[in-house]
Amino acid sequence: MSTPRILLAAAGRALVAVAARALSPPACTACDARLADAGVFCADCARTVRPSRARRAAYPLRGAAGSCVAAGAGLVAYAPFAGALADGIRRFKYEDRPDLARPLGRLLLCAALDAGMNADLLVIPVPLHPRRLAERGYNQAALLAAHVAFGLAASLAPRALCRVRTTAQQAQLSRDLRLQNVAGAFRVREPERVRGRGIALIDDVATTGATLAACRDALLDAGALSVTCLVLASAEGGADDIRSPPPSARRT
Ligand SMILES: [Zn+2]
User: Fold this and answer.
1) Are 179 and 241 in contact (CB under 8 A)?
2) Which residue of 17, 88, 117, 156 is most buried, as measured by CB atoms within 10 A?
3) What one-character DSSP code corresponds to residue 28?
4) What span, in angstroms and rounded, lies between the C-alpha atoms of 140 and 90?
5) How far apart, in whole angstroms, are the C-alpha atoms of residue 176 and residue 226?
6) Secretion signal: which residues (predicted)?
7) CA distances for 177 relative to 182, 209, 235, angstroms
8) What CATH architecture does domain 3-250 belong to?
9) What is the whole-number distance in angstroms between the Cα of residue 125 and the centre of ligand 1?
10) CB 215 within 8 A of CB 201
11) pLDDT tens-digit profile of 212-235?
């Protein structure tokens, strides 16, 4: 089957899964316990999630031209990668549960609003390689990005970034290998949409931040004014790479 057909079939599978779950009663994102209302977690699971009120706005990034960009640029995470949030994200990604984009997207939108993100931003997901997209059936970052863009009334550019080569799965690599693995793996496909814009770059998890940093650098090199990374969960002590200045800032 050709790649577009494979992707179409994958999107069809994801749609059917979402439609089937939409007819089910509300359930906990982490353990499927029945919920009385449309919450995200049951009471037991909710106790294991510790949203950070002081969201991380870690490093004042600089635009490619060297101008200091708006406050809040850096990394914003809803909570540490732990407990029921980690369980929910794993199910969302690896257990064929695209329907979980809805509750998890609500959490991500909370983090975005807390961090002062607004409709001026252009929302861009971290892309998956088409082969991995066909395997999974959906790009979890793209589903989350759609929720955030809708909630902020911001523009969504789901195809602005693309992967120019496949990369080994980051989860299996050491920090140094992760950096090597993703360096130069991303390209801006729509530079005219990105130029001069503040970007909200969306992914599910920041582990070392290597993937986010590679995407951020591609966007800044294409002329983006600023890039704020927005993730559901950040590994404890992780995301070091996103905290370091991008190459364009180091040059200034
Ligand atoms: Zn639960």
Assistant:
1) yes
2) 88
3) -
4) 11
5) 26
6) 1-29
7) 9, 12, 17
8) 3-Layer(aba) Sandwich (3.40)
9) 27
10) yes
11) 989 999 999 999 999 999 999 988
The least confident of 143-147, 149-153, 243-247 is: 243-247
Q: Are 124 and 157 in contact (CB under 8 A)?
A: yes
Q: How far does the centroid of ligand 1 lie from the alpha carbon of residue 92, in Å?
A: 14
Smallest Cα–Cα separation from 123: which of 148, 102, 100? 148
Amino acid (one-letter) located at 44: D
Give the strand pairing for 161-163 and 186-188.
antiparallel
Q: How far from the centroid of its chain's Cα atoms is residue 189's Cα?
A: 18
How far is residue 59's CA from residue 249's CA, in Å, rounded to a whole number?
Answer: 11
d(Cα 130, Cα 88) in Å, to the nearest integer? 24
Partners of 94 in beta bridges: none
Q: How far is the CA of 203 from the centre of ligand 1 (A)?
A: 23
- CA 213 to CA 76: how far, in whole Å? 13
How far does the centroid of ligand 1 lie from the alpha carbon of residue 27, in Å? 8
